[in-house]
Each structure stands twice: as structure tokens, then as C-alpha cells.
Design a protein that fits this description.
Elements: E1 4-9, E2 12-17, E3 28-32, E4 37-41, E5 44-48, E6 55-63, E7 67-74, E8 84-90, E9 96-101, H1 102-106, E10 110-119, E11 127-134, E12 144-146, E13 151-152
Amino acid sequence: MSNTFLSIQDGVLKWIQYPNEPYSQFHTILTQGTGWGLVISGYGILWRSGETTTGTLELGYGRLGTSLLLLLAGGLSGSQGNLKSLEIVRRSDNTVLYTETSTNLINAFTNEPRLAVIDTSLLTGEEVSIRFIDNDPASGWAWLGVSPVIYIK
């Protein structure tokens, strides 16, 4: 498995290698709502929902270890941080095993992607997909950003 991904460093698009963590298996798009797309920002390549659009991005599949590591960013329109969330879903029966708001995962509302570490030790070995849900229809700051690389530890 490769453990590299594209990122922007010093204004140049480069392949970056992370030698210490297994590379994500979550590279298959299972659901891509109309508001979601890949964008290149000053922080690298992100999956990003739109300012006024809502929808779900579901990526699969991967077998969980003790934790997941990913980058999240997102704006806040008013007090609507609870409208953006992440779910871990069991592949075999589509059961939601974990859910949390994106703002609780990174404890911030920010344009800059921040590391979210999710303890999946009780789910080790489960084959899952990850859903990112943006239900915030407001304008300006009503978006969610997700790194296209998710690490399994």
C-alpha cells in the first residue's frame, strides 16, 4: 500500500509520504452529494461541501484499528455546528457504530484543517465506511472540509 498523498507545500503541489501510519483504505466514493467536491486550498487537497448546499460524502471501505486520524475543517454559520457530522458505518449491515459532530472532533470552527483522532479501539477489526454529513444550508461559513487521506492506526 502506498502512504503518500498530494499536498501543497510552499505553493508547489507535491507528493508527501507518511512512513509511520498505515495508509487509508477509504478511497472509494460510495456517496457524493451534489455539494461535495475536491478542492485545492492553501492547506492541500480537501473534500469540501459547499457554502449553501447540503449533502453526504461517504468513503469506504476500511478495516478499523485502534484509531482513525484525519484532518477536518469547517465554518460555523451562527450556532449550527451540530449540523455537520461524521459517522462510522458497519459495511455488513449499514449500522452506524459511531457518530460525532465535526466541531466536537476538532473543538474549533476554522478554515485551517485540524487533526481529529477518533478512538476506535472498541471497533477494531470492523469493516466500515465513513460518512461526512453537511446539513447546514446557510450561506458563508456553512461548509465542511475533510482530508482525502484517512489513516488507520
